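User: Predict the structure for this protein chain, please.
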Amino acid sequence: MALADGHLPVLPLGADKRPLGNCPDCADLACGGRPNMKTPGPCVCPWPCHGWAAATTTPTVLASRQWGLAWRRARAIGYHPGGAGVTVVDLDNVDAIAWARTTLPPTTTVATTRGEHWIYSGTVRSVNKVRPGVDIKSLMSYARWLGPGSGAMADVPAAVHALVEVKPAARPATRAVTVSAPAGGGRCPHRSPAYLERGIAMAEQRITGAESGVHNTVYRTFLAVLSAHGRCGCLTETHISRLFAAAQAKGESARHCTTAWTNASTALGM
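Assistant: Here is the predicted structure, written as structure tokens:
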């Protein structure tokens, strides 16, 4: 509550230092997620179930019964750097720290388990592994709260802007979808066409935002989409093509996409 009162959007982290898992109503984003994942705030459920976007400074949310249950399970405090107007340069080892000391201007520094957080005023795009042992955490990301640190805070330096603005390597061209949409025939749960569209958009975002375990993320996302939208006949080949394109943009092959979709359908008995 004290951190939130100081305009730091906070959220509970588990023992693995990650945001706590989705609440039952929102497992695998079955609820469609927040209408706007680009701003911090709780899900409307109102459990803190959508990672960095759940970070909040609202006292009534933090003091609610739902959040109280989450905080009892928490093992650490996380915060949304971008929501606080700062950027965290996460240095994971001594080599990364040595690089920072010769490349970046001094700023507020916080010791971590393996290295240091260098915190700058201003926000940038969040990118992991910009160089060995270095992650940039700011907008649409979270960091672990480890204390206020020491040293005067400097503005985000040009060297950090250069790291996050590097154009990504070209991805292999996508191939046309190779599976057919489910036949449907079940009860349609959609409140409106916007509900389905939001679900597909959230699935695309989930795949695009995967920083590791892309194979598993693609499969679990396909599974969630089929579970929520695959039995009523509203899911079209256009929707599936969008998901395949997102997966292939992360480096997945068309064959793996088809296999993941087939396995998800089989797991659901479709």
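Residues 34-40, 168-172 have pLDDT under 50 and may be disordered.
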